[in-house]
Write a structure and sequence with these properties.
The protein has 173 residues and is an alpha+beta fold. The chain is 29% helix and 35% strand.
């Protein structure tokens, strides 16, 4: 599978991506907001590329240079729902990379998997990720108190969702 817009391409990860994944995940902002371990090792990257059942992860790369900009993926929760996650390398932030990647993959997943909705969770303090979700068309539905444990601490999160009905006939546009 390969998806693209004018600036970014989503493609499956390959072993050659491992050094760039390891380098990007040294940035403390990535493990701060995600389940990415810190410090992040080559073995962590290999486990990530090996995948898990019902998880679909894609490299976000620059259309022209092929440079790894980040990662976006989802986990199928049931036959009708999936939850999304993403990270962007420090050097690629502020350019709309995460928004474009999330928009591309969420609409593809809704269409390709016949999902009723896609969703994601984000901590209330993660303002950048909230902006990404909203700019990609997701809407805040709830505050889930003490919803996840991350790095040994219970955390509140907002639940954002994009129902297929909100996308309508523009599912792949």
């Amino acid at each position: 599978m390969r998806l693209a817009d004018g600036d970014v391409v989503l493609r499956p990860f390959v072993d050659e991506d491992i050094p760039a994944i390891v380098a990007a995940c040294q940035d403390p902002e990535i493990p701060r907001w995600t389940s990415v371990p810190s410090p992040y090792t080559e073995e962590d990257a290999r486990r990530y590329l090996a995948g898990a059942p019902n998880v679909y992860s894609f490299a976000v790369v620059d259309r022209d240079s092929g440079e790894l900009l980040g990662s976006v993926g989802f986990q199928l929760l049931s036959h009708s729902r999936a939850t999304f996650g993403y990270w962007v390398a420090r050097e690629a932030r502020g350019r709309g990379v995460a928004t474009r990647a999330l928009r591309l993959l969420s609409r593809w997943a809704l269409s390709e998997h016949g999902l009723a909705r896609v969703q994601l969770i984000v901590e209330p303090e993660n303002v950048a990720s909230i902006r990404v979700a909203e700019n990609a068309g997701f809407r805040r539905e709830a505050l889930l108190r003490s919803y996840i444990e991350l790095k040994g601490r219970r955390r509140d999160v907002y639940l954002y969702a994009l129902p297929a009905a909100d996308v309508g006939s523009r599912a792949l546009s």
